[in-house]
Structures are given as C-alpha cells and as structure tokens.
Amino acid sequence: MDSRDWIRDGLRAVLGGLIAIPLAALNLPLFVLSVATLILGVVPGLGMVLFPLVTQLVRARADLARRIAAGSGVAIARPYRTAPERAVLGGWRHYRWVLTDPATWRDLAWLVPGAVAGVTLGVLILAIPLYGLEGVLLIPLWIWLGTGWYGYGAIWPFSTVGDAFLSLPQGALILSIGVAGAPYLRRCGALFDRLLLAPTRNAELRLRVSQLTVTRADTVDAQAAELRRIERDLHDGAQVRLVSLGMTIGLAEEMVEADPAGARKLLAEARETSTAALADLRHLVRGIHPPVLAERGLDGAVRALALALPIPITVETALPGRLDTPVESAAYFAVAEALANTTRHSFARTARVELWHTGSTLVMQVSDDGLGGADPAGGTGLRGIERRLAAFDGTMSLSSPPGGPTVVTMELPCASFSPKTTPSSGTG
Q1: 286-295: buried (b, 16+ CB within 10 Å) or exposed (e) per residue?
Q2: Residue 287 pLDDT
Q3: Any coiled-coil ranges, and where (predicted)?
Q4: Torsion of CA 412, 418, 421, 427, to 10 degrees
C-alpha cells in the first residue's frame, strides 16, 4: 500500500472516530425512549403510535451504523421483515408487526452496548493520535517557552531541554501508530455492531427466499422479453426474406423455359435474398450466444467486442480457464452492456475492462474517463445488468461521481473453471 493511502485511510478513520462519539451517545436517549414508549403500550392507542415511531428512529440509527460499517469493509444486511399490507401507523397490524419482528429487539439490545463500544473506540481512535501530536508539536514549544516541569511518554519529568525534545521521536511514533491503527479500531467497532445488527440465521433464510422470489420473477420476465424479441426478429427479418425467397424461386421456375434470361435474373435476386436472410439469422444467433464466445471463451469474446467499439478499450484478464456456459454468457453480456453504456452515454475517450477470478467469484470491472453521473435509475441499461447478474446470484456496484471516472464492478459466483484454457491471455 502506498504511504499516502494508509495516511489518507487513517485520517479518514480518525475523523470517523470523532463522529462516532456523538453518534454512539445518541444510542442512550433512544434506548430510554424505546423503553418508555414500550411501557406506555399499556395505554390504549398511545403506545401503539409512539413505540413504532421510536422504533423507526432506532432503525434509522442502526442503518447508519450499517453504512458506517460498510465503509470499514464489514457488510451488515438489514434484517427487518416486510411490513404487512394495509399496515397503518397507529393501527394494531402495524404495532404487531414492529413488536413481533425479532430485529426490533436485537436493535434495542444493541443500543447500550453499542453506545459503550462506540464511545470507547471513538475515544481511543482520537486519543492516540492526539497524544502523539502533542509530543510532536506541543511539548518542545512548552519547554522552549519555559513552562517548567512536564513529562511525556517514557520520560517523567523532564529535567533538561534535551529530555523535552526526546518527545519528538516518541510523539512521531505514537502518532504513526494511532493513524495506522485507527482503521483497524473502526473495523473492530463494525464487527461488534454486526454481532447484533446482522440478521439471524432464520432472518437470513427469510431474506434469501424473498430475494430469490424477486430474482426468479425478474429472470422469468427477462426470458419472456428475450423470447418476444427473438420471435419479432424472426417474423420481421428472416421469415419475410425466406417467404420472398420462395416466391422468387417459384417465379423463376415458371419462367425458366419461356424466359431463361428473366429466370436467371430472378435466381440472382434469390441468391441475394438468401444471403441477407443468412445474415439476419447470424445476427440473431449472435444475440443469443455469440459464436466467438463459444469458440474463444470469455477472454477472446471480450477482446473481440472491444475491437469492434469506436473508442480505444484496454482489456486485461487473469482467468485460469473456461467458465460454465451459462455463467460465461451472462458475464459476456453484462460486460457488453456496460461497454455499450460507455460508448453511448459517457462521452469517454478511453475505457478499460478487467477480468479476474478471486477463488470463488468472477470479477468484471469496466471503467472509463467520461463525464460520470451514471445512475441505474436513469434507464441506461444498468438495471438490465443487475437483473442479468441477479439470476446467477451476482451483484453490481457503481461509482460514477459527476465529472467521472465511472467504474462498474460486477461479480458472479464462480467456484471453478474447466481445464480448457482460452486462446488469448495477457493484456490488450
């Protein structure tokens, strides 16, 4: 890691520790409010309104903790059950939904320990670098100005100016340790939060079933749309040409004896029509499963795709072999759609595709130097990529600040490769 990277990450973690202290302290009034409104539940109507309201605040605070944990590399999924239909705030159905959700009680159980851990780690994250900074900046100045007795680090008290200036290397060491260790302390806090804020095993299974239900519906819709596209392309393209071909050949048969020259002309037209029909069918097949993908694998297919696009695209791959055909096809079309977005919407001058395998996941990253500002909700095909990957339990993440660059990272679970290797490797 570059020295600037660990300094930047450390300073960011120190700032996070500063923010973590008041956020953690906020847990305590939320806990008191939750207990108070829960007790007020015995009052008809009042508790049924207040407790769900306070629970929403608690969940917002827990969601904030989850987002902060994600910044430390610790993913914490939301475990909450879906609200029942026709559930209205203040109504019995809504109150029972909040009350019977196990995640409600896990959030409450987290508030006080989370406050203690958050404040403790936040103080440590701040105190160590500040103490190091004190040794670097303040102690020599104080001694130089003649402030008298003082001590720092391993020297208590200072007896000479030399002792005072020995605080400089000690302070630099403590400051470095504090900045370098701050991200790890932040991660410890995130791991602690995950103990109670993450879904239980049953909640994970319930969320998984819900996700698979949505994914299955999206996959079925996508397949139906693809079948309609194929049917439309066949009906409007190849089928029309083949019908015309049959009619032309029939006319040629009738004219072959009476007008041989006209028959030859019709046969020439028939040959052109058959060539166009074949091109339509090849284009249709290419949209279903490109021949280059079957012949050369994902590596070669992506390189061929990059060469066909109007901007320079660098391709780097580190794939040990061939993937299963369905996964390979999904990966290819996901990369193709991402590159299509780049050429159509980003106004990029160059782009880059990187493919690698982490041991259990195929990672595809498409980046460009365009204008940025890409949004999956903007109808630029990113939703289609998400749906295609979701059918294989894959994910997509997007980084596209205004002004660029745009980086689309796609991941597909892929435990193994076949021993057959692709013809091309390295960089392009």
Answers
A1: eeeebebbee
A2: 58
A3: none
A4: 20
Same domain (yes/no): 180, 243: no
What tokens appear for 207 in the block? Answer: 């969320």
419 found inside a domain: no
422 domain residue, yes or no: no
CA distance 355 to 234: 34
Count the neighbouring beta carbons within 10 Å of the beta carbon of residue 351: 24
Check whether residue 148 and residue 183 sit in a common domain: yes
Q: CB burial class (10 A; 0-12, 13-18, 19+) of residue 27?
A: buried
Other Cβ atoms closer than 10 A to 385: 26
Nearest to 78 by CA among 211, 201, 198: 198
Select from 85, 122, 77 the least CA-distant residue to 103: 77
Rounded CA gap, 64 and 193, in Å? 11
pLDDT in tens, 119-156: 999 999 999 999 998 888 877 677 666 666 677 888 77
Two tokens, residue 256? 């072959």
Give the structural domain span for 40.
3-197
Domain end among 288, 323, 356: 288
User: What is the pLDDT at residue 425?
Assistant: 39
**Residue that terminates a domain, selected from 197, 222, 252:** 197
Amino acid symbol at 107: D
Q: What three-state secondary structure class fits 335?
A: helix
- For the chain, report the end-to-end CA distance as a whole number of angstroms: 26
Mean pLDDT of the chain: 81
Give the Cα separation of 21 and 68 in Å (integer).
13
Strand segments (E) across 226-379: 313-318, 351-357, 361-368
Q: What is the pLDDT of residues 361-400, one digit of tens each?
A: 889 999 998 888 887 776 657 887 887 787 787 888 888 8
Task: Give the pairing type, strands 351-357 and 313-318.
Answer: parallel
pTM, two decimals, is 0.57
**Sequence-distant (≥ 6) Cβ neighbours of residue 365 within 8 angstroms:** 352, 353, 354, 355, 407, 408, 409, 410
* Residue 397 covered by a domain: yes
